[in-house]
What does this fold into?
Amino acid sequence: MVKRHDVLVLVDRGLEYDDIGQRLGIHPGLAYMIATGLPADGSDALTADDTERPGFIPKSTQRLATPARVHNPTHHSEVHEWIASRVARDIQLQESGARDWPTAPKLGDTADDSDLAALLARDHNAFHKLTNRLKYTPSSAKGAADDQVAERAAAVDGLRDGLERHERAEQLHLWPFVLEKLPNGAELADNAQEQEQLGSGLLDELAQQAPGTEQWDQLAEQLQHALRTHVAYEDQVLLALHDVTSTEERRAVGERIAAAERSNDGSP
It folds into this structure.
C-alpha cells in the first residue's frame, strides 16, 4: 500500500506526479490525492490552507486525472546547450536578463505619497518580489541548473542588504512612533524585534552554507515564511496606527524613514 510519505519523498526529489505514479505503480491522480488529500480533477473548492499542503501544485492538475504521456524536450542536455548558444548570440536577451537579475531593492522612495503606510507598502512589495524569486526559482531538489542556484543566492543577498537598511530605519523612526501612539506599543515593538532577530539569524545561517545545498534551501524556505509573517504583523500595526494618528504625523514619520533608508543606501 502506497503511503503519503512514499509520494512526498519523490516530490521532494523533483519528480513529476506522472513519473511518481509510474514508479509506484499507481495512477498519477491517485499519487496527487495521497500526497495532498486533494482530488486532481479540481472538484474541491480550495482554501488558503489547502495551497500550503506539501506536494500541492498551484497550476491546473486536471491532466493528472486523465494523464497522457508527454515528451518534454527541455529535460535533455542538447536543449539546454542550444538555449545557451542562443542567449550568447542575443545581446538584447542578455541585457534583459541582466536587468531582471535579483538585486537589493531601492528603498526610501516616497513617490507621490510619503504616508508611513504607503512607504512601507512599497518596501514590502520590493521584498515580496525577492521572496517570490526564491519561491518560484527551482531549488536543487527540483533539479535547478547552476544559474538558478546563483539566482536564488542573489535573491537572498538582495534581501540581506535591503532588510539591513529597512529595519535600521524602522528601529530609528517607526517603533518609537508606535511606542508613543499605541497603548500596547512596547509589546508590539518587542514582538517585532523578535521577528526581525529571527530573520537576521536565518540570514546569518544562510551566509554560512553553500547555495544549492539541502541545508541552504531549507533555510531559504524558513526565511520566506519568516518574512511573510513579519510583513503581515507590520500591516496590522500600521492599521492600528492609522486609527490614532493624523495624516501629517504619518507623513512626517514616513519621510524620516525614507531619508534614513536613502542615507544607508548611499543615495542623496
